[in-house]
Design a protein that fits this description.
Keywords: Cell membrane, Membrane, Repeat, Sugar transport, Transmembrane, Transmembrane helix, Transport
InterPro entries: SWEET, SWEET_rpt
Subcellular location: Cell membrane
Shape: globular
Number of helices: 12
Radius of gyration: 22 Å
Subunit structure: Forms homooligomers and/or heterooligomers.
Low-confidence stretches: 218-226, 247-280
Transmembrane segments: 6-25, 46-63, 69-91, 103-124, 130-152, 164-185, 191-212
Distance between the termini: 15 Å
Order of helices and strands: HHHHHHHHHHHH
Largest sheet: none
Number of strands: 0
Strand content: under 5%
């Protein structure tokens, strides 16, 4: 679809690819942690299954529309999400592994495979096939872009931005702007329109970041769920160590330090325990 005859659109698309590549690499620290600890801890696989489905949908659309830039970035996204899921499956406990495999078979193989088979064998007109694939991809992108509502709600409820990394929100917002203009320049509204919603939600997250960045969640009476879970986990470890040493689990002898950690350590704790959002690459 796009050639060197569209130099401005090509340059915008290259910028979009670079920004999307940075976003795709965002979960790398998470999965390095999983690999190092040989455990998935509290991380969930659903965001990565959804991200893989999104990438495959847009990869199929890029193949039909012969868009080289969309094809390249979504190929990278498919490979990256597959690697993330492979690491997750390698270290996930039995129930989580079984759930992830069922989800992959039902959504990424069953649903996506059924759509491709229908379009390839029952939709003869090529342009109509492109339109249907683009419509499905755009609808799915709109649904995925609604995901930040949960993060926005949590920030407003806790009055803390510990669950909302600023730079990830920033790159997602800039990426949405770039892909919106890319879609407009090549007159591909399936690419342009979903990124309007992505831009609005991205701006909302950044506004909330500046509103609440200096707020102390403890002063506002909103102790994060992750901090509470960490304190409970420390208490349980202390109880077990005493039980092993004394031969019995007498919780009355356990002394738990409930003082909050230093701010730097608190940031490291929340970054280590939070699951990054799935990214939408279009």
């Amino acid at each position: 679809m796009i050639t060197v005859g569209h130099p401005v659109a090509f340059a915008v698309g290259i910028l979009g690819n670079i920004l999307s590549f940075l976003v795709i690499l965002a979960p790398v620290p998470t999965f390095y942690r999983v690999y190092a600890k040989k455990s998935t801890e509290s991380f969930q696989s659903v965001p990565y299954v959804v991200a893989l489905l999104s990438a495959t949908l847009w990869l199929y659309y890029a193949l039909l529309s012969t868009d080289l830039l969309l094809l390249s970035i979504n190929t990278v996204a498919c490979v990256a999400e597959s690697v993330y899921l492979a690491v997750y499956l390698a270290y996930a406990p039995g129930p989580a592994k079984a759930f992830t495999l069922k989800l992959l078979c039902a959504i990424n193989m069953g649903l996506f495979g059924a759509m491709v088979a229908f379009l390839q064998f029952y939709v003869v007109d090529t342009q109509r096939r492109v339109s249907i694939a683009g419509g499905v991809g755009a609808a799915f992108a709109l649904a995925v872009f609604v995901a930040p509502l949960a993060i926005i709600r949590r920030v407003m409820r806790t009055k803390s931005v510990e669950f909302m990394p600023f730079w990830l929100s920033f790159f997602l917002t800039v990426s949405a702007v770039v892909w919106f203009f890319y879609g407009l320049l090549i007159k591909d509204f399936f690419v342009a329109m979903p990124n309007v919603l992505g831009l609005l939600f991205g701006l909302a997250q950044m506004v909330l970041f500046f509103v609440y960045r200096n707020r102390n969640p403890k002063k506002n009476g909103a102790v994060s769920e992750m901090q509470q879970a960490a304190v409970q986990a420390d208490a349980e470890k202390e109880r077990r160590s005493h039980a092993n040493a004394d031969g019995e689990a007498d919780v009355r002898t356990v002394i738990v330090d409930i003082m909050p950690p230093p701010p730097a350590m608190m940031v490291m704790m929340t970054a280590a325990h939070q699951t990054p959002p799935a990214v939408e690459v279009v």
